[in-house]
Write the structure tokens for this entry.
Amino acid sequence: MQEIIELSETLANQIAAGEVIERPASVVKELVENAIDSGAHKIDILIEAAGVQSIEVIDDGQGIPTDQLERAFLRHATSKIQTKQDLFQIHSLGFRGEALPSIASVADVFLETAVVDATSGAMIHIKGNKIIEKKGSGARRGTKIKVSDLFFNTPARLKYLKSQSTELAKIVDIINRLAFSYPAIAFNLVHNQKQLTQTVGNGNLQQVISSVYGLSVARDMVTIDDHDADFKVQGWISKPELTRSNRSYISLLINGRYVHNFNLAKALIKGYGTRLMVGRFPMAVLKIELDPSLVDVNVHPQKFEVRISKEDKLLALIEKMVAEAFDNVNLIPNATENLIESSVKKNYDGQPEKSFIQQLNTVSKNKQVQNQNQRVNLSVDGLLDSQKANGLSENQDIQSFHEERQITPIVVEHLGDLNEATVEAFEQKYQQESKANPFGLDSSTVIAGEQTQLTLDHETESTSELAGFPKLEYLSQLHGTFLFAQGSDGLYLIDQHAAQERVKYEYYQATLAKHDLEQQKMLVPLVFEFTTVEMLELESQAETLRELGLHLENFGPNTLILREHPGWFPAGQEADTVHEMVDWLLREGGLTLQQFREKTAIMMACKRSIKANWKLNAIEAQNLIDQLAQTKNPYNCPHGRPVVINFKETDLEKMFKRIQDSHENWVEYDNHPF
């Protein structure tokens, strides 16, 4: 058995550093939190080489007394708590006394500090937890600490670090969250002499949000503010149309501390109810204030995780606040605002002049209406609508319709009458008509319904139906959502949205595969605004974007411009497609052209398919069913949901008790008196 020994202070600090200091962002977090706890009003963070080369934090806080300078680097030395009771009433960000000794054990640290009204300050130099030098310094109030050569004595941890762009993005994210927590503090983050984040420190949270996410995002957010006996919640949440593809844009701040809490984020999302699309998440900054005795922050050394007493009560409050936040807010987005807001031209009458794109859209719509009016009407109602448009009366319409449809009846009184010429002509006529489409239309025809217009985007190829998929005959529609059809073996219920989603998905999938990376120049370039974190990630993924045919150019701070786009982008959805591409790229870290085209086909199919409460006429419904039968997979939509379910004839008989147990037989009841 080996002897039990006490670890040296240096080795113990290096072990502790493994929990507290994971990457340069951890160093920044601990140092900036110390600056905040010291009462600083302005904090400068100067970074070199994403923090691996150097991290310098300068504040105007209270400083450290000269006689306590060495003590600050001792393990578990802190000024935040004194007794056991203080552990349950924590008002500061730091309290464990692990940050400075952990940093000093794996880096080269220079610290210069002075307290208020001091005639001089002090400087200390520590490397690998060993004091190299200690001397006096100037009397500038506050603390200046510089951390260099991070992880010089722990090569495994240094090898673990990601690219500079990734590590810098982590740092920027930490500073952004702290800026949300403390809008009254001015933060200034500079990397390689380039400013990344700057806040003015005037206490205006919306202005901080604007500095981080951009002015357009800040304008599309709604403020919330409510409280009960235990909790006070205030902040800003985005309107339902302003969403992201992940939860990372939700900032939860508890007593000034940014935390990760899935239940709180879930309550926020639940408050939106059905206003959010599936797979989309809001942007939010929620500041939660509560008695420190109700929250336990001593869960993990990094203090990201907390435990909250009366959490159910807080969840209910957040959900209620979010649900009520939109009661008096206009949630109808302005479709043309992004296109013409900054470039509206006036004509000679002082009225806004239509842009070239708007004029093209108007001409296109008029042309489409003219083409539709030239199509053959398929019913009496359609004929009446067309005739009325030409100024004819309803009686004239009906009379004209019946005159065109007059049929001489064929009377068969004897067997020999079947050989008459009229009967043979009748039989021959319908033998010929049965070979053609009874409506005189192919599957690409645009059919005008009662409430909508179902446009079938592709010509149906003369392919046989999928083996095993039944021939279905349309019966009716339920609540504008589900289609009833009958087959040889029973009743079929079809989700019309999922059905057309499958049809369109396979069409777009085949269409996008035909296009290469030819570029389409734009008359009006698109301008995109991203956060600093997103910009850094996009810089690291620039080569991937170019491979996808997306050439985004710098157009000012945190702004990119797109002058041309791949030719396969759906018309009218260029901006949405770029946003989806960026979201997927940031979320998954890499995306091939084939993968993105697959995702785009799914997105386009979903957005361009008929929705619930969308009434179809009989011809439209049957046409959709026929197209579904010709797809490669008519059983599931692109998201995996079922398209068709079947009630067997025996199932229906059991429902109506037409099939009974073996000891009962309906034959015995055939002569019942009722």
About this structure: The mean pLDDT is 76. The longest strand covers residues 519-529.
